[in-house]
Amino acid sequence: MSFLARQCQRVSRTSTSAIYLSKRQAHKKSSIQVKLVDFVEGVGIKDEVVSVRPGLMRNILYPAGKATYVATYNGPRNRLMEAQQNDQNHVETDALANGLLREQRQQQADRLLGGLESVKVLEFKRAVVPNSESTFGSVTADDLVLKLKDDHGLVVEKHSVEFKSEGGRIKSLGEHTVQVQIGDNVTTITVIVKST
Is 34 within a domain? Predict the structure, then answer.
């Protein structure tokens, strides 16, 4: 093979490989660096800086509060000062959030407890077995929670309702006591089951 043919062959190889590489990179998606605030499955763990697609960050991670954009710096960096500022910001936001959450929960518990103390008696009607005090349907924690919500506008979790007897439900006519625990406080409600 002549010298000229070899040179032409080399030039044609490099130009086609350059075209080939540019075609391969054309379909690759851009990515941005983000810092994860919480564990995200398939992306990374908390406080890790990862590369994600801009759409994922813009539409899913950032609105959900699971990631933050990494700040870009255009000058010399003082990593010690950055770390101190991050630590100080985390401490301030955590303390503020914990204090506000505690205060809000306490206010909600006090309001709910006051509402429950104003409700002393709840009445339910059930079908009765003939010649007996037993009912066909029982009164459960779900029934009690639904009645409190519908009649009095009080939202109580069903796991906080505790029946004094009969294994977590009322299966007979008459007057029964039920305890509702809100935070550290316990209030008692009288439940009356009547026949229909």
Answer: no
Question: Is 185 a domain residue?
Answer: yes
CA dihedral for 150, 152, 156, 160, sign (positive or negative): negative
Structural domain includes residue 129: yes
CA angle 180, 186, 191 (to 5 degrees): 40
97: in domain: no
CATH number of the domain residue 120 falls in: 3.10.430.100
How many domains is the chain built from?
A: 1
**What are 36-80's pLDDT values in tens digits?**
999 998 899 998 999 999 999 999 999 999 999 987 766 666 777
Closest by CA to 56, choosing from 46, 66, 71, is 66
Range of the domain at 186: 113-195
Using the predicted structure, report yes or no on whether residue 142 has a pLDDT greater than 80.
Answer: yes
CA distances from 189 to 3, 22, 145, 150, 193 (A): 103, 75, 12, 16, 13
Going through 1-139 in order, the beta strands assigned E by DSSP cover 32-36, 49-52, 67-69, 121-126, 134-139
